[in-house]
Amino acid sequence: MRISLGLAAVVGFLTTGAANAQISSLKIGVLTDMSGVYADPTGPGSVFSARQAVQDFIAGRTGNNIEVIAGDHQNKPDIGSAIANRWIDVDKVDVIVDVPTSSVAFAVNDIVKAKNKVFLGSGVAASDLTGSRCSPNTVHWTYDTWALANGTGKAIARTGGNTWFFITADYAFGHALERDTAAVVEANDGKVLGRARHPLSTNDFSSFLLQAQASKAKIVGLANAGGDTINAIKQAAEFGIVQGGQNLAGLLVNVNDVHALGLKAAQGLLLTEAWYWDATEANRAFAKTFAAANNGRKPSMVQAGVYAAVTHYLKAVDALKSASDGKAVVAKMKQLPIDEGLFGKGTIRPDGRKIHDMYLFEVKRPEESKYPWDYYKLRATIPAAEAFRPLSEGNCALAAHVQ
Fold this sequence. Notes:
By secondary structure, the chain is of the alpha/beta class.
């Protein structure tokens, strides 16, 4: 799918800080899950967010030639790699954006580094992207497994959830989320009693839920996402997991999942997010524009992250007057100050990790919700300095000189 962008006389809801910006030629590739298990919080909405970021950046300016194209990696590393190689070698794509599914993201990360382009990860979760797999060509923008574990896992472990059983997606993302959460549980004097790993996009969680029940763990941690988390929670209700005295911990739950589940099923869930559409006026303005083009759906944190990351990338390219040297563009992104409407003030560390506040939310009861998509109440703000893994603990070679 190819989306060409010419000049757009639109009113941006964020200040880009790019007065007189002019980018003669640039191509952005949004590589995402267009129809699979992660399509709702990423997918077409991520493509829209990238397009909107470009439109807002060039609004009222002349001489810009920026094109957005989109591809569906189908959550398969071989397909994602083929698209990334073709985009860079044939289509002359300068930056690849989003890339949910960590195994695909790792492959894209290596390709982009080898070919000196840029990777802006918003949908990818595995914290290894800014750890052992860090790259001078990559920025990990929105969230990661360490931040999720530090938020949801720590909150539950500190309030009595001291025995856990994990139901885990059996690929890089699930393994990383389980690992990072288990470390938090054990650091807070808890114990992991067992784990069961399921294939991506499975429809039957019965055997995994039976193992969780048999473990007698207080907490059943769902180290999965998207449709897998939704199906696991629905089937857990059929098995009477909560009625039997155990509690569910959705370790990557987003507003789209809550919408799909409904408040009756999701009420009381604790979850950690980097962004919520109803938190600020700027967020609500973006959500209004997004919803108008996406059948009334509100944006996820991933889709907001795509918008913010592309906006900051365009500022860096404009400052350099070129996108040809990907490593130089990322270095400029790290250098430029970040203070934009959706995520507020932040920084990009030497390891490529974008730092900002994270938020612990509780899903509202049905009677607490006052209007469509009014799903969360804030339990805690996790300051940026505490929200992500310390630079010294990530084993990233790029951080060695600052430790």
